[in-house]
Write a structure and sequence with these properties.
The protein has 194 residues and is an alpha+beta fold. It has one domain. 54% of the residues lie in helices and 16% in strands. Strand 1 and strand 2 form a beta hairpin. The chain is elongated. It has a five-stranded antiparallel sheet. It is built from five helices and five strands, in the order H-E-E-E-H-H-H-E-E-H.
């Protein structure tokens, strides 16, 4: 690879460091009794409320309808994800420094595989969270499930649940786009030099 493409891949790898400082996903819950909104932010290594007491309030609401409590320390993915991103940063740096196009292609494919597995895992977590309800819950509505949407919005009783990617995930997308751009630039410069 040409120097310009190498620099772009190295820069793309370093962008991933920023994903540690921003949430990667959010779930907003809009309802008349919460005019200011209530919601969750999902980070690489934690889940927090969008406001200081949101996580506790959501757990309190969920208790009444039989949903499990969200306990971030009990979610293994939050312990694994930081290591996966560190691996991607290092692999990207090695790919950029070495200038091997094949490594950059592998890096991009790894992103897509990890993203697909991550989305599937998140969907399954949401499914379990919204379907496996405590049969002794205070409020029971036959046939009702409370699974939030994977992406988009969905009405859950009187709550509009909105689930979307956040800044951290968009930074990861930017890293992949930059890697693709680096490959395109390199390919064009090779053709011009032939």
């Amino acid at each position: 690879m040409k120097t310009q493409s190498k620099i772009i891949v190295i820069f793309a790898s370093l962008i991933l460091i920023l994903s540690f400082f921003f949430p990667i996903w959010y779930i907003d819950l809009e309802a008349p009794q919460y005019p200011e909104g209530i919601g969750l932010e999902i980070w690489l290594n934690k889940i927090t409320g969008q406001n200081p007491h949101d996580l506790a309030n959501i757990n309190g609401l969920n208790h009444y309808i039989g949903m499990k409590e969200i306990v971030p320390d009990a979610i293994p993915e939050l312990k694994i994800m930081p290591f996966i991103i560190i691996f991607l940063i290092l692999f990207g740096l090695i790919s950029g420094i070495s200038g091997k196009r094949s490594l950059v292609y592998i890096w991009i494919v790894l992103f897509f595989v990890i993203a697909a597995v991550g989305l599937y895992d998140f969907y399954m977590w949401e499914y379990d969270y919204g379907h496996n309800l405590n049969p002794h819950a205070a409020i029971k509505i036959p046939g009702m499930a409370y699974q939030p949407p994977l992406i988009g919005s969905k009405m859950l009783l009187n709550f509009n649940a909105i689930s979307m990617p956040h800044i951290g995930l968009w930074l990861m997308v930017l890293a992949v786009v930059l890697a693709v751009v680096a490959l395109i630039i390199d390919k064009k410069s090779r053709k011009e030099n032939e």
